[in-house]
Amino acid sequence: MSTLIRNGTVITAVDEYVGDILIEDEKIRAIGKNLDVKADNIIDAKGKYIMPGGVDQHTHFDFSFGDATVFGWEGSNAALVGGTTTVVDFVNQKIGWSMKDSVDEYVETKVNGKAMCDYSFHGVVYDPSDALFEEIPKLPEIGIPSIKLFMAYKGHPYHCDDAAIFKALQASKEAGVTIMVHAENADVIDVLQKQLVAKGKTEPKYHAVSRPPLVEAEATQRAIYLAMMADAPIFVVHVTCKEAMEVIRDAYIKGVPAYGETCSHYLVLDTDNLSKPNFEGAKYVCSPALRGEEHREALWEAIKKGWLKCVSSDHCSFSWKEHKVLGRDNFINIPNGAPGLQDRLAILWTYGVEKDKISRQKLVELFATVPAKINGLFPQKGTIAVGSDADIVIFDPEWKGVISNKTSLHGVDYSSYEGMEQIGRAEKVFLRGNLTVDDGKFTGELGQGQFIPGKPFGLAYQER
Ligand SMILES: [Zn+2]
User: Fold this and answer.
1) In this predicted model, what pLDDT tens digit does every residue of 229-288 receive, in sequence order?
2) DSSP secondary structure string, 190-257?
């Protein structure tokens, strides 16, 4: 099976040119001008942009908060219609289990037969025991070169103290395993939550009041110092505020291998969303919390200048009427997380490229190339090059519409971006050479996604 995409404007993280792309089976076989080859299918992409399929390195297709559990891999086609062909999903360790057994069980019971995009994994530490620290150096053998630890969520099983973070950092560095942290000061949040609730301040908007920017900045700085003491790299997930971003930027400029990402919602939503009446604010409860406008502008500058490395979705699809409502009387009980898998490209294009905040090449870097590198998936994923997987988006920049839950495939009852303008869309998407989105609609099959093992030293690779 071969496909020739003619006359599109190819965008990578470093190039932009008009050319033809030949796909044979699952790979990109040739790129050139006026390629003189035969193909089973020929697509004229004149006036369209051709980009690598996106890599979303922060999704939760399985996460529970109290009694609420997110919608699973049946919603993974939302990635594809949004131009994302690979996700790196967080797999929660089961208490008393090894990470490997936890991953095996997850794949068997939740992923197999359902995943529609390609996928890789990060482990999430729930049980920071000696057995886990001994297992960390072996994780690259099963294609998992990164684990995340939660500094936040005091009292939850997955909360990790500084000793756990430090031991994980020590255990990771020789094997090239990247330690990721959710950086927020758990104790301060716990105190503020209790004080607010005692005063009757229980509405969704107090979620942000209980987690001010400095709880994030403090934990980010602490995590970087712990990494420096362990002489290991560190990656801070979902950076939301100016102060935390500056801590990472300043460490990086000094030569410390400290990195971070931000997420689409922190670039376009803010605390006003949390104040929406009739409990609608609950839709926007995620952690760290949404911030004010000055933080949004600082984050756009940070991704433009490379101080934050990529933009993820932190997709975590709790429903509003079924799950978020558990915190109707107390914001502490609102499940933390929001859907967003489908909208990452739309947000980056409409509110980044179209508003002259980032270039088209920078979009590809943030959306696909760098996340592929961080997770050891590059150059198989994340770029358009001969020999890479034929994960390709044909993007129509003329399309105009509105983001709505009606056209979202994520399987929950709301979109965080409902009613927001969208310019351009993924018109056709190829996953390993197979057309899986046509005219913006999913045309693939349940279970077509494959596991892509990540190589260790993702971050080091990027720096070479
Ligand atoms: Zn997350």
Assistant:
1) 999 999 999 999 999 999 999 999 999 999 999 999 999 999 999 999 999 999 999 999
2) HHHHHHHHHTT--STTHHHHTS-HHHHHHHHHHHHHHHHHHT--EEE-S--SHHHHHHHHHHHHTT--
Domain boundaries, the chain: 2-51+385-397+421-442, 54-380
Gap from CA of 314 to ligand 1 centroid (Å): 5
Q: Tens of pLDDT along 427-455?
A: 999 999 999 999 999 999 999 999 999 99
Tell me how far the alpha carbon of residue 266 lies from the centroid of ligand 1, in angstroms. 13
Could you please state the CATH topology (level 3) that the domain comprising 54-380 is classified under: TIM Barrel (3.20.20)
Rounded distance from Cα 26 to ligand 1 centre (Å): 31
CA 60 – ligand 1 centroid, Å: 6
Distance 296 CA to ligand 1 centre (A): 19
457 pLDDT band, cuts 50/70/90, is confident
Q: What is the pTM of this model?
A: 0.97
The whole-number pLDDT of residue 230 equals: 96
How far the first Cα of the chain sits from its last, in Å, is 36
Residue carrying structure tokens 């996953």: 431
CATH assignment, 2-51+385-397+421-442? 2.30.40.10
Those residues whose beta carbon sits under 5 angstroms from the ion ligand 1 are: 314
Distance (angstroms) between ligand 1 centre and the Cα of 150 equals 10
Average pLDDT over residues 156-162: 93
What is the Å distance from ligand 1's center to 59 Cα? Answer: 6
